[in-house]
């Protein structure tokens, strides 16, 4: 049996003044294909809950293209529903280089 990969997914309403329709989505840990089903379900289940999303990615052990594709699709789906997405990534330089070399540089430009 495969070892379960540690991941933390949390959604909460924004506490920022004037952002009552914003949902904060926090993702940490193993952001890899091993957890793709969990991430997909998390993102899909939260799409109807907000008009804007503040996606916070931090404490990343591993990140891969499967996760990045899910995140990019979430951004695209939100745009189709005229919803906003702001992504903040706190990742290592090596992980940033993976994004750039894999053609996901646009995700970095969405970060604060």
Short description:
The chain has 112 residues and is of the alpha/beta class. The chain contains four helices and four strands. Strands 1-2-3-4 form a four-stranded mixed sheet, covered by helices on one side.
State Rg: 14 Å
Span from first to last CA?
39 Å
CATH topology: Transcription Regulator spoIIAA
Strand arrangement within the widest β-sheet reads 1-2-3-4
Tell me what you see in this structure.
This protein is of the alpha/beta class and 112 residues long. It has a single domain (7-109), classed as Transcription Regulator spoIIAA (2-Layer Sandwich). β1 and β2 (22-31) form a beta hairpin. It starts with 6 loop residues before the first strand and ends with a helix. Strands 1-2-3-4 form a four-stranded mixed beta sheet, with helices on one face. Helices cover 37% and strands 31% of the residues. It is globular. α1 packs parallel to α2 (65-80).
Which descriptors would you attach to this protein?
112 residues, 4-stranded mixed beta sheet, 4 helices, alpha/beta
Q: In terms of topology, how is this protein built?
A:
Layout: E1 7-13, E2 22-31, H1 36-46, E3 52-63, H2 65-80, E4 84-89, H3 93-101, H4 105-109
Parallel strand pairs: 2-3, 3-4
Antiparallel strand pairs: 1-2
Helix pairs in contact: 1-2
């Amino acid at each position: 049996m495969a070892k379960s990969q540690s991941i933390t997914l949390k959604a909460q309403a924004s506490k920022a003044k004037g952002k009552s329709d914003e949902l904060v989505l926090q993702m940490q840990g193993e952001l890899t294909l091993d957890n793709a089903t969990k991430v997909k379900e998390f993102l899909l289940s939260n799409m109807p809950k907000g008009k804007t999303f503040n996606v916070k990615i931090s404490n990343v052990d591993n990140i891969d293209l499967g996760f990045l594709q899910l995140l990019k699709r979430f951004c695209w789906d939100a745009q189709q529903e005229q919803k906003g997405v702001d992504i903040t990534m706190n990742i290592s330089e090596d992980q940033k280089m993976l994004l750039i070399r894999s053609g996901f540089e646009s995700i970095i430009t969405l970060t604060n």
